[in-house]
Amino acid sequence: MKKAITLLLAAAMCTTMFASCGGGDSSSASTSTDTGSGETASTGSSESAEGGESSGESGSLKMAEETEIVFAFPASGMYTDEGLQMVEDGVNEITVANDNVRVNIEAIASNTYTNQIGMMMAGGEQLDVFGMLGTYSTMLSKNQLMNLSPYMDTYGQGIHEALGDEFLKATTNQGSLYALPNNNGKAAVLNVILRTDVIEDNNISLDGLYQASTWDEYMEVLGEVGNIFEQMKAAEPDMYCASSVSNSMNFMTSMPLLDKLNDYFGVLMDGETTVVNYYESEEYAQLLDIAHDWYQKGYIMQDAATTTEAQNTYIQAGVVMGGFIVGEEGQAEQITNATGVDVTCVKLLQPTITTTDVNGICFAISATSENPEASMLWLNEMYTNPDIVNLLDWGVEGVHYELQDDGTIDFPEGVDSTTSSYNMNMDWFFGNQFLSYIFGYGRDTTIYSRLEANNKNANFSPAMGFTYDSTVVRNELTELSNVKSEYGPGLETGTTDPATELPKFIEALKAAGIDKVIEEKQTQLDAWLAEQQ
Amino acid sequence: MDNRKSKAIRLKRQIPLFVMTVPGLIYLLVNNYFPMIGIFIAFKNIDYSKGIWASDWVGLDNFTYLFSTGSAWRITRNTILYNIAFIIIGTIVPIAVGIMLNDIRGKVRPRLYQTVILLPYLFSWVIISYIGFAFMSGDSGWLNNSLLPALGMEPVQWYSEPKVWPFILTFVNIWKGVGYSSIVYLASIVGIDKSYYEAATVEGANKRQQICYITLPLLKSTIVMLTIMSVGRIFYSDFGLFYQVPMNSGAIYETTQTIDTYVYHGLMELNDISMSSAASVYQSIVGFILVMAANILVRKVSPDDALF
Question: Which end of chain B is more exposed for a tag (fewer CB within 10 A), N or C?
Answer without folding.
Answer: N
